[in-house]
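Annotated sample (chain length 397).
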Amino acid sequence: MFAPQFSLTALPRLALAALLASVLAGCTTLGAAGPSSGQVRKIEGGDYAGGQIALVELDPEIWRRVSAFEQSQSLAQRLGQSGAGEIVIGPGDVLDVALWEAPPAVLFGGGAVIPGLDAGAQNRAVLQQVVDGTGAITIPFAGTIPAGGRTPAEVERMIVARLAGRANDPQVSVRLIQNDSRNVTVLGEVTQSRRVPLGPRGERLLDIIASAGGTRAPVHQTTVQVSREGTSAVMPLEAIIADPAQNIRMRPEDVVTVLHQPYSFIALGAVATSAEIPFEGRGISLAQALARTGGLRDNKANIRGVFVFRLEDPAALTPAMRGATPATEDGRIPVVYRLDLSDARGFFVAQDFMIRDQDVVYVATAPGAEIREFLATVTSLAFSAIAIGNVVTSNNN
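Output written by the structure step:
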């Protein structure tokens, strides 16, 4: 048998052919940054966690709808505003009750002289009363007084009415000296969890947090939940500080929970940096989010395929968009918002559309980007093969 003979001058062509064959055989394994824009669109109506995925084109109308929903979830909108109001007595409160009687004193004679008046002009008796569980206090010669749910002025009038005909021109002063029924509970990531009594001026939310020593976590990583009469609302602390309208007045029995909750979104696809990216509690827009990824990759990004994946509250969507779309078990709808940046007006929408915690921002790969990458790889390998062959030929000459 004869061994095949090859000339050295044929080596470059053989090497090039072998490399091209190897690349062509493996071209189906070239990776991609993720699904194409068309593939993302095909998921509309698909199933996720028992819900049905909705694809929504992001335009000014949709932005206004989502923005209005987000505003409706604020503390001021969900819980409402309240005035300072009068102090109302409740069980557990301690009252300082002062009783005066004009001379000749019949019931309270011999008491201390009131400063500023002539000696012996009036006499008084001072006593402290703890409001019992039924809201009542007991006053000598006046009997049981139902003080619960009434203001100190109302209790004063009730006692005077009871003493009429027994005391000589009675006068009464009722003062709340220990507030045990009008409190706000604050707990969580604060210096000291405690019950904060409400005064007559009407303390606000930030007053309550400050009374507990402030937050232990940084402000931009702190979320505040206020629970009131079966309704709860949650907002970032930074947003509450920035908007005075959200610094609502507190009501008795409110519960304030301070949470350490850093906010972040996930960037994937044809962006400069794919990563989980933190952001401030006051929020960032989609345009800012794209900028924090380093921007779109010029050689790969499809500007018609910028997507935001989100589990959305049904109230944020119009009835037409919701349709008969079933929600997930927790009552949310999986939504994909699509933004077309080939239309320059889309940049205004990107400036207004706000990113939420745990959103996924995905930029699809442009059509043909993989082919261009493949051809660039083939070209690079071809020139490498030719260079290797030239070196071999030169050495053998």
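Annotation: The longest strand covers residues 301-312.
Annotation: The CA atoms of residues 185 and 195 lie 4 Å apart.
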